[in-house]
Write a structure and sequence with these properties.
The protein is of the alpha/beta class. The protein contains eight helices and 17 strands.
Length: 375
Protein backbone atom coordinates (compact mmCIF):
# COMPACT_ATOMS: atom_id res chain seq x y z
CA UNK A 1 0.00 0.00 0.00
CA UNK A 2 1.47 3.41 -0.95
CA UNK A 3 2.17 5.99 1.76
CA UNK A 4 -0.74 8.38 2.38
CA UNK A 5 -0.35 12.10 1.81
CA UNK A 6 -1.42 12.76 5.39
CA UNK A 7 -1.28 10.77 8.63
CA UNK A 8 -3.58 12.14 11.32
CA UNK A 9 -3.02 11.14 14.93
CA UNK A 10 -6.36 11.18 16.74
CA UNK A 11 -9.77 10.18 15.43
CA UNK A 12 -12.07 12.48 17.42
CA UNK A 13 -14.31 15.01 15.73
CA UNK A 14 -11.28 17.21 15.06
CA UNK A 15 -9.04 14.54 13.49
CA UNK A 16 -11.94 13.18 11.43
CA UNK A 17 -13.07 16.64 10.26
CA UNK A 18 -9.52 17.40 9.10
CA UNK A 19 -9.31 14.01 7.38
CA UNK A 20 -12.64 14.55 5.63
CA UNK A 21 -11.72 18.06 4.48
CA UNK A 22 -8.51 16.71 2.93
CA UNK A 23 -10.06 13.59 1.41
CA UNK A 24 -12.88 15.58 -0.20
CA UNK A 25 -10.17 17.36 -2.20
CA UNK A 26 -8.56 14.13 -3.32
CA UNK A 27 -5.80 13.69 -0.71
CA UNK A 28 -5.05 10.22 0.64
CA UNK A 29 -5.38 10.12 4.42
CA UNK A 30 -4.82 7.63 7.26
CA UNK A 31 -6.24 8.31 10.73
CA UNK A 32 -4.77 6.50 13.76
CA UNK A 33 -6.51 6.39 17.13
CA UNK A 34 -5.32 4.73 20.32
CA UNK A 35 -8.81 3.73 21.39
CA UNK A 36 -12.33 3.96 20.12
CA UNK A 37 -12.01 7.27 18.25
CA UNK A 38 -13.10 10.40 20.05
CA UNK A 39 -12.45 10.23 23.79
CA UNK A 40 -13.79 13.74 24.47
CA UNK A 41 -16.00 13.81 21.40
CA UNK A 42 -18.16 10.86 22.43
CA UNK A 43 -18.65 12.46 25.85
CA UNK A 44 -19.94 15.84 24.72
CA UNK A 45 -23.40 17.30 25.16
CA UNK A 46 -23.29 18.47 21.55
CA UNK A 47 -24.41 22.07 22.02
CA UNK A 48 -23.69 24.39 19.11
CA UNK A 49 -23.55 27.46 21.29
CA UNK A 50 -21.02 30.13 20.34
CA UNK A 51 -22.42 32.72 22.74
CA UNK A 52 -23.01 30.57 25.80
CA UNK A 53 -19.41 30.66 26.94
CA UNK A 54 -18.09 33.80 25.30
CA UNK A 55 -17.33 36.57 27.75
CA UNK A 56 -16.32 39.13 25.11
CA UNK A 57 -16.03 39.64 21.35
CA UNK A 58 -12.82 38.41 19.73
CA UNK A 59 -11.28 35.69 17.56
CA UNK A 60 -13.00 32.84 19.38
CA UNK A 61 -16.48 34.32 18.87
CA UNK A 62 -15.74 35.06 15.19
CA UNK A 63 -14.58 31.48 14.61
CA UNK A 64 -17.46 30.01 16.60
CA UNK A 65 -20.12 32.04 14.76
CA UNK A 66 -18.56 31.16 11.41
CA UNK A 67 -18.69 27.49 12.40
CA UNK A 68 -22.32 27.73 13.55
CA UNK A 69 -23.28 29.23 10.16
CA UNK A 70 -21.57 26.33 8.39
CA UNK A 71 -23.42 23.63 10.31
CA UNK A 72 -26.49 23.27 8.00
CA UNK A 73 -24.36 22.78 4.86
CA UNK A 74 -21.91 20.60 6.81
CA UNK A 75 -24.79 18.29 7.77
CA UNK A 76 -26.11 18.31 4.20
CA UNK A 77 -22.65 17.27 2.95
CA UNK A 78 -22.40 14.47 5.50
CA UNK A 79 -25.85 13.22 4.50
CA UNK A 80 -24.59 12.66 0.96
CA UNK A 81 -21.56 10.65 2.11
CA UNK A 82 -22.59 8.91 5.33
CA UNK A 83 -25.03 6.13 6.05
CA UNK A 84 -25.61 7.55 9.53
CA UNK A 85 -28.09 10.45 9.26
CA UNK A 86 -27.11 13.44 11.38
CA UNK A 87 -29.60 16.14 12.37
CA UNK A 88 -29.37 19.51 14.07
CA UNK A 89 -31.78 19.20 16.96
CA UNK A 90 -34.06 21.22 19.20
CA UNK A 91 -35.72 24.65 19.16
CA UNK A 92 -32.62 26.45 20.50
CA UNK A 93 -31.20 27.62 23.79
CA UNK A 94 -32.54 29.56 26.75
CA UNK A 95 -29.77 31.17 28.79
CA UNK A 96 -31.39 31.74 32.16
CA UNK A 97 -30.57 34.09 35.03
CA UNK A 98 -31.54 33.21 38.59
CA UNK A 99 -29.96 36.03 40.59
CA UNK A 100 -29.77 39.80 40.13
CA UNK A 101 -26.05 39.53 39.32
CA UNK A 102 -26.70 36.84 36.69
CA UNK A 103 -29.44 38.96 35.12
CA UNK A 104 -27.08 41.96 34.94
CA UNK A 105 -24.40 39.77 33.33
CA UNK A 106 -26.92 38.40 30.82
CA UNK A 107 -27.99 41.94 29.85
CA UNK A 108 -24.40 43.17 29.61
CA UNK A 109 -23.53 40.27 27.32
CA UNK A 110 -26.62 40.93 25.21
CA UNK A 111 -25.39 44.49 24.52
CA UNK A 112 -22.50 43.20 22.38
CA UNK A 113 -24.00 39.85 21.34
CA UNK A 114 -26.96 41.60 19.66
CA UNK A 115 -24.57 43.14 17.10
CA UNK A 116 -23.42 39.72 15.85
CA UNK A 117 -26.35 38.85 13.60
CA UNK A 118 -27.85 35.94 15.55
CA UNK A 119 -31.50 36.33 16.55
CA UNK A 120 -31.58 36.84 20.34
CA UNK A 121 -34.68 37.64 22.41
CA UNK A 122 -34.68 38.92 25.96
CA UNK A 123 -37.45 37.33 28.06
CA UNK A 124 -38.77 38.28 31.48
CA UNK A 125 -39.76 35.69 34.07
CA UNK A 126 -43.36 35.37 32.82
CA UNK A 127 -42.21 34.97 29.22
CA UNK A 128 -39.73 32.27 30.22
CA UNK A 129 -42.48 30.38 32.04
CA UNK A 130 -44.85 30.71 29.10
CA UNK A 131 -42.19 29.00 26.98
CA UNK A 132 -40.91 26.50 29.55
CA UNK A 133 -43.45 26.12 32.42
CA UNK A 134 -41.27 23.58 34.28
CA UNK A 135 -38.34 25.90 35.08
CA UNK A 136 -37.67 26.52 38.77
CA UNK A 137 -39.27 29.45 40.65
CA UNK A 138 -35.98 31.33 40.94
CA UNK A 139 -35.63 31.90 37.17
CA UNK A 140 -36.04 35.68 36.71
CA UNK A 141 -35.01 36.29 33.08
CA UNK A 142 -33.54 34.60 30.03
CA UNK A 143 -32.18 35.11 26.55
CA UNK A 144 -33.76 32.93 23.88
CA UNK A 145 -31.35 32.01 21.08
CA UNK A 146 -33.22 29.88 18.52
CA UNK A 147 -30.19 29.13 16.32
CA UNK A 148 -27.97 27.79 19.12
CA UNK A 149 -29.17 24.20 18.77
CA UNK A 150 -27.43 20.86 19.31
CA UNK A 151 -26.33 17.60 17.68
CA UNK A 152 -25.87 14.10 19.10
CA UNK A 153 -22.04 13.81 19.25
CA UNK A 154 -21.93 10.02 18.96
CA UNK A 155 -24.04 10.22 15.81
CA UNK A 156 -21.72 12.97 14.54
CA UNK A 157 -18.68 10.72 15.15
CA UNK A 158 -20.33 7.84 13.27
CA UNK A 159 -21.36 10.09 10.40
CA UNK A 160 -17.86 11.56 10.15
CA UNK A 161 -16.30 8.08 10.17
CA UNK A 162 -18.79 6.92 7.47
CA UNK A 163 -18.06 9.96 5.32
CA UNK A 164 -14.30 9.51 5.77
CA UNK A 165 -14.55 5.88 4.65
CA UNK A 166 -16.74 6.91 1.71
CA UNK A 167 -13.94 9.30 0.66
CA UNK A 168 -11.29 6.59 0.99
CA UNK A 169 -9.81 7.60 4.36
CA UNK A 170 -8.29 4.68 6.26
CA UNK A 171 -9.42 4.94 9.90
CA UNK A 172 -7.53 2.60 12.25
CA UNK A 173 -8.80 2.30 15.84
CA UNK A 174 -6.92 0.76 18.77
CA UNK A 175 -3.45 1.78 17.55
CA UNK A 176 -1.48 4.02 19.89
CA UNK A 177 1.16 6.24 18.34
CA UNK A 178 4.39 5.85 20.32
CA UNK A 179 6.79 8.07 18.38
CA UNK A 180 7.80 9.61 15.06
CA UNK A 181 10.52 8.59 12.61
CA UNK A 182 12.39 11.72 11.54
CA UNK A 183 15.01 12.92 9.08
CA UNK A 184 16.27 16.44 9.75
CA UNK A 185 13.31 18.75 10.20
CA UNK A 186 10.89 16.30 8.62
CA UNK A 187 8.81 13.48 10.02
CA UNK A 188 9.05 10.45 7.73
CA UNK A 189 6.73 8.11 9.58
CA UNK A 190 4.41 7.66 12.54
CA UNK A 191 5.37 4.81 14.85
CA UNK A 192 3.17 2.38 16.77
CA UNK A 193 4.30 -0.52 18.96
CA UNK A 194 4.60 -2.94 16.04
CA UNK A 195 3.98 -0.86 12.95
CA UNK A 196 5.03 2.32 11.17
CA UNK A 197 2.97 4.42 8.77
CA UNK A 198 4.99 6.57 6.39
CA UNK A 199 3.30 9.70 5.13
CA UNK A 200 3.88 13.03 3.49
CA UNK A 201 2.61 15.19 6.36
CA UNK A 202 1.60 14.47 9.95
CA UNK A 203 -1.24 16.15 11.81
CA UNK A 204 -1.49 15.96 15.59
CA UNK A 205 -5.17 15.90 16.59
CA UNK A 206 -4.73 13.96 19.81
CA UNK A 207 -7.14 16.00 21.93
CA UNK A 208 -6.09 16.10 25.59
CA UNK A 209 -3.06 13.92 24.77
CA UNK A 210 -1.61 16.35 22.22
CA UNK A 211 1.03 17.69 24.61
CA UNK A 212 2.46 14.18 24.96
CA UNK A 213 2.51 13.76 21.18
CA UNK A 214 4.33 17.10 20.90
CA UNK A 215 6.90 15.97 23.47
CA UNK A 216 7.73 13.02 21.19
CA UNK A 217 9.00 15.68 18.75
CA UNK A 218 10.58 17.92 21.40
CA UNK A 219 7.85 20.50 20.98
CA UNK A 220 5.78 22.07 23.70
CA UNK A 221 2.06 22.05 22.83
CA UNK A 222 0.46 23.62 25.91
CA UNK A 223 -2.65 21.46 26.17
CA UNK A 224 -4.12 20.10 29.40
CA UNK A 225 -7.01 17.71 30.04
CA UNK A 226 -10.07 19.29 31.69
CA UNK A 227 -12.33 16.52 32.91
CA UNK A 228 -16.05 16.81 32.34
CA UNK A 229 -18.53 14.51 34.02
CA UNK A 230 -21.96 14.39 32.44
CA UNK A 231 -25.10 12.26 32.77
CA UNK A 232 -28.40 11.35 31.16
CA UNK A 233 -31.75 11.34 32.99
CA UNK A 234 -34.83 9.53 31.89
CA UNK A 235 -36.29 8.77 29.47
CA UNK A 236 -38.95 11.28 30.56
CA UNK A 237 -42.53 11.21 29.27
CA UNK A 238 -43.48 13.90 28.56
CA UNK A 239 -40.18 15.79 28.37
CA UNK A 240 -40.39 18.59 30.98
CA UNK A 241 -38.46 21.05 28.78
CA UNK A 242 -38.00 21.51 25.03
CA UNK A 243 -35.18 24.08 24.89
CA UNK A 244 -31.62 23.58 26.01
CA UNK A 245 -31.43 25.38 29.35
CA UNK A 246 -28.07 26.98 30.05
CA UNK A 247 -27.56 28.36 33.54
CA UNK A 248 -24.77 29.38 35.86
CA UNK A 249 -23.51 26.01 37.15
CA UNK A 250 -24.75 23.69 34.40
CA UNK A 251 -27.03 22.94 31.48
CA UNK A 252 -29.81 20.58 30.42
CA UNK A 253 -30.13 19.32 26.85
CA UNK A 254 -33.39 17.50 26.01
CA UNK A 255 -32.83 14.81 23.41
CA UNK A 256 -35.34 13.37 20.88
CA UNK A 257 -35.08 9.97 22.61
CA UNK A 258 -36.62 11.72 25.66
CA UNK A 259 -33.46 11.60 27.76
CA UNK A 260 -32.19 14.81 29.30
CA UNK A 261 -28.44 15.36 29.28
CA UNK A 262 -27.18 17.22 32.35
CA UNK A 263 -23.65 18.59 32.26
CA UNK A 264 -20.98 19.13 33.04
CA UNK A 265 -18.26 19.34 35.67
CA UNK A 266 -14.90 21.05 35.06
CA UNK A 267 -12.06 19.38 36.92
CA UNK A 268 -8.29 19.32 36.69
CA UNK A 269 -7.88 15.60 37.38
CA UNK A 270 -5.07 14.70 35.03
CA UNK A 271 -5.92 11.82 32.69
CA UNK A 272 -8.21 10.12 35.21
CA UNK A 273 -11.32 9.71 33.06
CA UNK A 274 -13.83 8.43 35.62
CA UNK A 275 -17.00 9.72 37.22
CA UNK A 276 -17.19 10.44 40.95
CA UNK A 277 -20.09 10.40 43.42
CA UNK A 278 -19.48 14.09 44.13
CA UNK A 279 -19.51 15.00 40.43
CA UNK A 280 -22.68 13.07 39.64
CA UNK A 281 -24.33 14.38 42.83
CA UNK A 282 -23.64 17.97 41.85
CA UNK A 283 -25.16 17.44 38.38
CA UNK A 284 -28.30 15.80 39.82
CA UNK A 285 -28.69 18.74 42.21
CA UNK A 286 -28.18 21.27 39.41
CA UNK A 287 -30.81 19.52 37.26
CA UNK A 288 -33.37 19.40 40.06
CA UNK A 289 -32.83 23.07 40.90
CA UNK A 290 -33.17 24.21 37.32
CA UNK A 291 -36.23 22.01 36.64
CA UNK A 292 -37.80 20.79 39.91
CA UNK A 293 -39.77 18.07 38.04
CA UNK A 294 -36.41 16.35 37.52
CA UNK A 295 -35.89 15.75 41.25
CA UNK A 296 -35.85 11.98 41.60
CA UNK A 297 -35.75 11.37 37.83
CA UNK A 298 -34.05 8.05 37.09
CA UNK A 299 -30.34 8.23 36.28
CA UNK A 300 -30.02 6.60 32.86
CA UNK A 301 -26.21 6.69 32.54
CA UNK A 302 -23.17 8.80 33.33
CA UNK A 303 -19.80 9.19 31.67
CA UNK A 304 -16.81 11.44 31.42
CA UNK A 305 -14.54 13.07 28.86
CA UNK A 306 -11.23 14.92 28.84
CA UNK A 307 -11.50 18.27 27.07
CA UNK A 308 -8.30 19.48 25.39
CA UNK A 309 -7.73 22.96 26.82
CA UNK A 310 -4.89 25.21 25.66
CA UNK A 311 -2.87 27.62 27.79
CA UNK A 312 -4.80 30.64 26.44
CA UNK A 313 -8.12 28.89 25.85
CA UNK A 314 -7.91 29.13 22.04
CA UNK A 315 -7.33 26.27 19.59
CA UNK A 316 -3.93 25.53 18.07
CA UNK A 317 -4.26 25.25 14.29
CA UNK A 318 -1.31 25.22 11.92
CA UNK A 319 2.27 24.09 11.46
CA UNK A 320 4.25 22.95 14.47
CA UNK A 321 7.28 25.13 15.16
CA UNK A 322 10.57 23.54 14.15
CA UNK A 323 9.10 20.89 11.84
CA UNK A 324 8.53 21.26 8.10
CA UNK A 325 5.71 18.74 7.74
CA UNK A 326 4.05 18.45 11.16
CA UNK A 327 0.83 20.29 11.94
CA UNK A 328 -1.58 20.45 14.84
CA UNK A 329 -5.33 20.85 15.29
CA UNK A 330 -6.31 20.78 18.93
CA UNK A 331 -7.20 22.83 22.00
CA UNK A 332 -10.91 23.16 21.23
CA UNK A 333 -11.76 22.99 24.93
CA UNK A 334 -15.49 23.09 25.64
CA UNK A 335 -16.42 23.80 22.01
CA UNK A 336 -14.92 21.14 19.75
CA UNK A 337 -18.28 19.89 18.49
CA UNK A 338 -19.37 23.41 17.53
CA UNK A 339 -15.98 24.05 15.90
CA UNK A 340 -15.89 20.83 13.86
CA UNK A 341 -16.94 22.30 10.46
CA UNK A 342 -14.68 25.36 10.60
CA UNK A 343 -11.69 23.34 11.80
CA UNK A 344 -11.90 20.92 8.86
CA UNK A 345 -12.17 23.83 6.46
CA UNK A 346 -9.36 25.98 7.97
CA UNK A 347 -7.01 22.99 8.08
CA UNK A 348 -7.76 22.03 4.45
CA UNK A 349 -6.93 25.62 3.44
CA UNK A 350 -3.72 25.47 5.45
CA UNK A 351 -2.57 22.01 4.36
CA UNK A 352 -3.61 22.08 0.70
CA UNK A 353 -3.38 25.77 -0.22
CA UNK A 354 -0.94 27.19 2.36
CA UNK A 355 -3.59 29.65 3.57
CA UNK A 356 -2.80 30.07 7.26
CA UNK A 357 -5.57 29.92 9.90
CA UNK A 358 -6.19 33.22 11.75
CA UNK A 359 -3.06 34.32 13.67
CA UNK A 360 -4.87 33.97 17.02
CA UNK A 361 -4.76 30.19 16.53
CA UNK A 362 -1.17 29.94 15.27
CA UNK A 363 0.71 27.36 17.41
CA UNK A 364 3.76 29.65 17.08
CA UNK A 365 2.14 32.12 19.50
CA UNK A 366 3.69 29.98 22.21
CA UNK A 367 7.07 30.24 20.42
CA UNK A 368 8.90 31.87 23.33
CA UNK A 369 8.50 28.66 25.27
CA UNK A 370 7.70 26.24 22.45
CA UNK A 371 10.90 24.22 22.29
CA UNK A 372 11.73 21.90 25.11
CA UNK A 373 14.34 19.15 25.35
CA UNK A 374 13.38 15.82 23.84
CA UNK A 375 12.38 13.32 26.53
C1 LIG B 1 -18.54 16.51 29.26
C2 LIG B 1 -18.22 17.25 28.00
C3 LIG B 1 -19.20 18.02 27.40
C4 LIG B 1 -18.92 18.71 26.22
N1 LIG B 1 -19.92 19.41 25.60
C5 LIG B 1 -19.67 20.07 24.45
C6 LIG B 1 -20.71 20.76 23.79
O1 LIG B 1 -21.86 20.74 24.23
N2 LIG B 1 -20.41 21.42 22.63
C7 LIG B 1 -19.15 21.44 22.11
O2 LIG B 1 -18.93 22.08 21.08
N3 LIG B 1 -18.14 20.78 22.72
C8 LIG B 1 -18.37 20.10 23.88
N4 LIG B 1 -17.36 19.44 24.52
C9 LIG B 1 -15.99 19.57 24.01
C10 LIG B 1 -15.70 18.62 22.86
O3 LIG B 1 -16.16 17.33 23.20
C11 LIG B 1 -14.19 18.60 22.58
O4 LIG B 1 -13.70 19.91 22.37
C12 LIG B 1 -13.90 17.81 21.32
O5 LIG B 1 -14.53 16.56 21.37
C13 LIG B 1 -12.40 17.61 21.14
O6 LIG B 1 -12.23 16.75 20.05
P1 LIG B 1 -10.82 16.13 19.73
O7 LIG B 1 -10.99 15.38 18.47
O8 LIG B 1 -9.79 17.22 19.78
O9 LIG B 1 -10.49 15.18 20.97
P2 LIG B 1 -10.94 13.67 21.26
O10 LIG B 1 -12.36 13.46 20.93
O11 LIG B 1 -10.52 13.35 22.66
O12 LIG B 1 -10.10 12.83 20.24
C14 LIG B 1 -8.69 12.75 20.38
C15 LIG B 1 -8.32 11.32 20.06
O13 LIG B 1 -6.88 11.22 20.03
C16 LIG B 1 -6.57 9.92 20.38
N5 LIG B 1 -5.16 9.85 20.79
C17 LIG B 1 -4.56 10.51 21.80
N6 LIG B 1 -3.26 10.13 21.89
C18 LIG B 1 -3.05 9.23 20.91
C19 LIG B 1 -1.93 8.45 20.51
N7 LIG B 1 -0.73 8.53 21.13
N8 LIG B 1 -2.07 7.59 19.47
C20 LIG B 1 -3.25 7.49 18.79
N9 LIG B 1 -4.35 8.19 19.15
C21 LIG B 1 -4.26 9.04 20.20
C22 LIG B 1 -7.50 9.61 21.55
O14 LIG B 1 -7.69 8.21 21.68
C23 LIG B 1 -8.77 10.34 21.14
O15 LIG B 1 -9.75 9.45 20.61
C24 LIG B 1 -17.61 18.69 25.68
C25 LIG B 1 -16.63 17.91 26.27
C26 LIG B 1 -16.92 17.18 27.43
C27 LIG B 1 -15.85 16.34 28.05
Amino acid sequence: MSAPDFVIVGGGVIGLSVALGLAREGASVTVLDAGAPGQASQAAAGMLAPLAESGCPGPFVRMALDSLRRWPSFVAGLREEAETPLDILGPGMLRVARTEAEEEALCAALDWQETLGLPLHRLDAAEVRALEPAVGPDVRAAVLSPLERHVEPRVLLRALADACRCRGVRVRAGVAVTGFATAGARVTGVEMADDLVSGGQAVIAGGAWSAGLGRMLGVRLPIQPLRGQILALGPQTPLPVRHTLYAHGGYLVPRPDRRIIAGATEEHAGFEARTTDAGIGSLLKMAATLVPDLAGAPLHSSWTGLRPVSADGLPLLGRVTGWDNVHVATGHGRNGILLTPITGSLMADHLLRSIPPPPAFDPARFLESSLCPSP
